Amino acid sequence: MTRSAIIALMFTWPLAAQSQSNTTVYVSINSQHHTQIEPGFAGYNVALMYVAFDYRYLRFGAEVRRLSPGWLRYPAGTRSEAFDWTTGASHQSWVDGASLSFSDDVRTDFREVLQSSMEVLAAKGGEHLDDAAALARTSGARGLIICLNVFTDTPASAKQFVAYARRHGIRVLAWELGNEPYLTLNSGPQRRRMRMRSNPLLTRSARLTRTRRSASQ
Question: How confident is the model at residue 165 (pLDDT cuts 50, 70, 90)?
Fold first, then answer.
C-alpha cells in the first residue's frame, strides 16, 4: 500500500465508520516493498515537570544518549498548558485558568497534574529552554519540538519565544500550537479564547514559512 493510500485511509475511515457502522475495511500489506524510515523519525516527550531532577542531570543525560533520539519535545504536553517559558515555571492563575478547559469529569485530575507541576517547578528552579536545547545537542538529537502554551500565555509571548530560539541558534524542528486542544476545549468561551490566541500564531507561522521559502529560492 502506498503512503498516500495509507494517509487517505487514516482520514476517511473515521468518517465512514460513523456513517456506516457495518462497513468492512480491508488492508493489504506487501512486505516485499517497504519504505525506509528516515533517520531521526522517532523522539521523546521529555516532560520533567513532575520529578526532582532537570535537563542538566548527568545520569539522565547519559540515559537519553543511549536512546539515540531523533528529537526531544519541550516543555511537555498537558503540563505545558500553564507553563511560562520566560521563567521556566507556572503561575497559580494560569493553573486555575487552564483547569477550566477540561470537562467536569476529568477537571479535578488534570488540575492536580498542573498544580503539582507548578509546585515541583518552583522547588527546582524551573525548566529552561537553553537546558533542553543543550540536552538535545549532547544526545545527538536533530533538535526540539516545542509545544507552545496557547491556553494561558499570549501570542506576543509566543513571538518572543520564537525570536529567542532563533537569536540563540536553537534548532527547533516544529512549533506545536498547543497540546491537544481538540480534547480539552469543552465550552464555547474556551474555544473562542483558544481561537483568539491561536490565529495570530498561525498567521505569523505562515509568514515565517513564506520568508524561509523565499530566502531558499
Answer: very high
Q: Residue 52: enclosing H or E segment and its boundaries?
A: none
At CA 60, angle to CA 55 and CA 61, rounded to 5? 70
Cβ neighbors of 51 (< 8 A, separation 6 or more) are: 120
Residue count of the chain: 217
Beta carbons of 18 and 11 less than 8 angstroms apart:
no
> Residue 89's beta-bridge partner residues?
84
For the segment 74-83, the average pLDDT, to the nearest whole number, is: 95
H helix intervals, the chain? 3-19, 58-67, 92-99, 104-124, 129-138, 155-167, 181-184, 188-216
Q: What is the mean pLDDT of residues 133-153?
A: 96
Place of cell 480534547: 183
The residue among 107, 106, 48, 47 whose CA lies nearest residue 77 is 47
- Look at residue 199 in the predicted model and tell me its pLDDT: 54
Q: Is the pTM of this model over 0.85?
A: no
Sign (positive or negative) of CA dihedral 132, 80, 182, 188: negative
Q: Are 77 and 45 in contact (CB under 8 A)?
A: yes
